[in-house]
Write a structure and sequence with these properties.
The chain is mainly alpha-helical. It contains eight helices and five strands; from the N terminus they run E-E-H-H-E-H-H-E-H-E-H-H-H. Strand 4, helix 5 and strand 5 form a beta-alpha-beta unit. The relative contact order is 0.14.
Length: 142
């Protein structure tokens, strides 16, 4: 859940999302990759989030949208349907986790998309088989 599309091609992650990621889960899925990433600017201060966003979404999604609006960022990474809908209502463009992975792969980050998808699925993240097929085709891993 990060605003993307900054001029310097770095992702920007709100403090609230950083806290969620750093808290990890039972398996700490993705925490070490997040910590090692050099292309992500991690904010260190909480945002003032509008009451509408606070009441409509969870803190992470609300902070992503608020940060994008505050920083004039045009594209956000949100996977949840309600967050995507509210982002669109605020005039924001969308990508999702898989979209970020496609961009990373095309930008030369060396990883197996097939393995990344498998890891996501093993953590209970549902991906439609049509989406998986499309993604693997996009990055020439068919």
């Amino acid at each position: 859940m990060t605003p993307t599309g900054r001029n310097d091609d770095h992702g920007l992650v709100s403090f609230e999302v950083c806290q969620e990621i750093e808290a990890g889960g039972p398996s700490d899925f993705g925490v070490s990759e997040f910590r090692r990433s050099s292309f992500i600017e991690k904010r260190s201060n909480s945002l003032t989030i509008t009451p509408f966003l606070q009441n409509a979404l969870d803190l992470g999604e609300a902070s992503v949208i608020q940060l994008a609006l505050d920083e004039n960022i045009h594209t956000v990474c949100i996977d949840e349907p309600m967050g995507r809908r509210i982002a669109r209502l605020n005039g924001l463009k969308l990508t999702g986790s898989v979209g970020v992975l496609i961009r990373a792969k095309k930008d030369g980050f060396g990883f197996s998309m097939r393995e990344a998808i498998s890891r996501m699925q093993s953590q209970g993240i549902y991906l439609n088989q049509k989406v998986v097929h499309f993604v693997l085709k996009q990055v020439n891993e068919m």
